[in-house]
């Protein structure tokens, strides 16, 4: 889970708080989401339920059980005041900031699953202190937190929405969800190279063959390429890498990445039909 606190203007405030089981950074035991459907409004007519409205959502909230959350992180999401000496105060001026929350998991098919809440506030209603018998070897228990969600105020597809869900591996979609929920600038992954297969090809006049460009790394932000023939009188190539033989001879087909101008080439020999 990643939590991004926001300032009064809705911009990210400080670094995201990552709760994913790392030592001394806490972990998420459970997350129970409720309110994703609104209460049904029924209208009766002619002694039957004539019309049902269930538009929108209810009171969207998440009940978290978290364990070993660092005290400074907890104070931030709960809006508690911590002074230079390290003492944290809770009182009339305690006011939790709005936060974006992104949950990440993996489904049974191995796909990444993302569930994001655009805006909301955390609350922790109680603290429990137990006297423990040294002889008891009891596993540590988590603390309960409630996150009450609100609709996104931002322009775009997410405006007025409460939750974003995505299951899959498309890097662009994942970056979009993270940018919308955490308001993080999408990471740009630059192109390091490109390959073109096959490296040589032989076709007849008026025949076609398809070339395949593979941009690396796999998660590059801009994987677009353009194609060019060294001799269009011998062979032409379209924007999808399909080569057409025009006349006998040899031509070089070059693929060039839009990002970084990396190139790869294939030699095409055209023979009589």
List the helices and strands and how they pair.
Elements: E1 2-5, E2 17-18, E3 27-34, E4 41-45, E5 48-53, E6 61-67, H1 71-78, E7 81-82, E8 88-89, E9 99-106, E10 112-123, E11 143-150, E12 163-168, H2 171-182, E13 193-197, E14 200-204, E15 208-210, E16 212-216, E17 225-229, E18 235-237, E19 242-245, E20 249-257, E21 263-271
Parallel strand pairs: 14-21
Antiparallel strand pairs: 1-2, 1-9, 3-6, 4-5, 6-11, 7-8, 9-10, 10-11, 10-12, 13-16, 15-19, 17-20, 18-19, 20-21
Structural account:
This protein folds into two domains: 2-182; 193-271, Sandwich (Immunoglobulin-like), CATH 2.60.40.1080. The protein is built from two helices and 21 strands. It has helices spanning 71-78, 171-182; strands at residues 2-5, 17-18, 27-34, 41-45, 48-53, 61-67, 81-82, 88-89, 99-106, 112-123, 143-150, 163-168, 193-197, 200-204, 208-210, 212-216, 225-229, 235-237, 242-245, 249-257, 263-271. The strands form six sheets. Strands 1, 2, 3, 6, 9, 10, 11 and 12 form an eight-stranded antiparallel beta sheet that branches. A hairpin with a 4-residue loop joins strand 18 (235-237) and strand 19 (242-245). The protein is elongated and about 90 Å long.
In short:
The chain is mostly beta strands and 273 residues long.
The total of beta strands comes to 21
- Biggest sheet features: 8 strands, antiparallel
The low-confidence runs, each spanning 5 or more residues with pLDDT under 50, are none
**SS summary, helix count:** 2
Structural class: mainly beta
Shape: elongated
State the distance separating the first and last CA atoms: 62 Å
**Percent range of helical residues:** under 10%
**For the residues shown, what is the average pLDDT?**
88
How much of the sequence lies in strands comes to 35-45%
Rg, please? 28 Å
* Number of domain modules: 2
Order of helices and strands: EEEEEEHEEEEEEHEEEEEEEEE
């Amino acid at each position: 889970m990643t939590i991004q606190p926001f300032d009064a203007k809705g911009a990210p405030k400080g670094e995201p708080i990552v709760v994913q089981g790392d030592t001394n950074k806490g972990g998420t035991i459970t997350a129970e989401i409720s309110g994703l459907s609104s209460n049904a409004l029924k209208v009766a007519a002619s002694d039957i339920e004539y019309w049902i409205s269930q538009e929108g959502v209810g009171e969207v909230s998440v009940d978290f059980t978290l364990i070993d959350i660092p005290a400074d992180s907890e104070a931030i999401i709960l809006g508690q005041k911590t002074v230079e000496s390290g003492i944290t105060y809770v009182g009339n001026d305690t006011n939790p900031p709005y936060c974006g929350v992104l949950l990440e998991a993996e489904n049974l098919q191995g796909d990444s699953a993302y569930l994001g809440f655009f805006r909301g506030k955390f609350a922790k209603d109680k603290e429990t202190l137990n006297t423990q018998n040294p002889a008891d070897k009891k596993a540590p228990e988590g603390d309960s937190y409630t996150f009450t969600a609100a609709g996104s105020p931002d322009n775009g597809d997410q405006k007025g929405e409460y939750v974003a869900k995505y299951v899959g591996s498309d890097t662009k979609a994942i970056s979009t969800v993270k940018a919308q929920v955490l308001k993080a600038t999408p990471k740009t992954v630059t192109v390091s190279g490109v390959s073109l297969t096959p490296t040589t090809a032989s076709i007849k006049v008026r025949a076609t063959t398809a070339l395949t460009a593979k941009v690396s790394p796999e998660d590059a932000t801009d994987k677009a390429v353009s194609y060019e023939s060294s001799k269009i009188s011998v062979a032409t190539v379209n924007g999808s890498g399909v080569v057409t033989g025009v006349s006998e001879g040899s031509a070089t087909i070059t693929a060039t990445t839009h990002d970084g101008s990396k190139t790869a080439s294939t030699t095409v020999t055209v023979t009589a039909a």
